[in-house]
Specification:
The structure is a single chain. The chain has one domain. The protein is built from 5 helices and 8 strands; from the N terminus they run E-E-H-E-H-E-E-H-H-E-H-E-E. The mean pLDDT is 85. It is of the alpha/beta class and 147 residues long. It starts with 5 loop residues before the first strand and ends with a strand. 29% of the residues lie in helices and 26% in strands.
Length: 147
Amino acid sequence: MKKTTWGVIGKGLAGWHAQSADGNTSSTSYDRRPEQAAEYARDAVDGALVYDASEADVDALTDHVFKGPMCNPSLPPDGYRRFMDRETARMMLPGLSGAFKAYAEAAQNPQFSGLDYVGTGIFESLLRKIPGIKIGKVLNGKIAWEA
């Protein structure tokens, strides 16, 4: 079985998670153990983005998670892939409710929506706008946090 190579490692409010470098696999364990980040880093590509949002502004983080784009490490760092059916989502809005309505509304954002994908460079720049977030990179299988 092929081993997963991680391209993004992050800690949100639910714990640590990771996205594969090819963009096809993500972990869903949301492990809260501090050593989980180091375990992901051992299997990450050099230069993989790492973030820790455990001390981030909760309102700004929540806004980013629900309204911001998803990261796909297989895209070029400054690349993006927009949700292709914004118009259908807009037309369906009057008949939707709950989470379906929230996502259809988020898809209308002219910049990036919660249904778009962006490369790690764009994703990192959006993360940097969240107060209290910690950013690092994987170097030789270890996390190097910014000062």
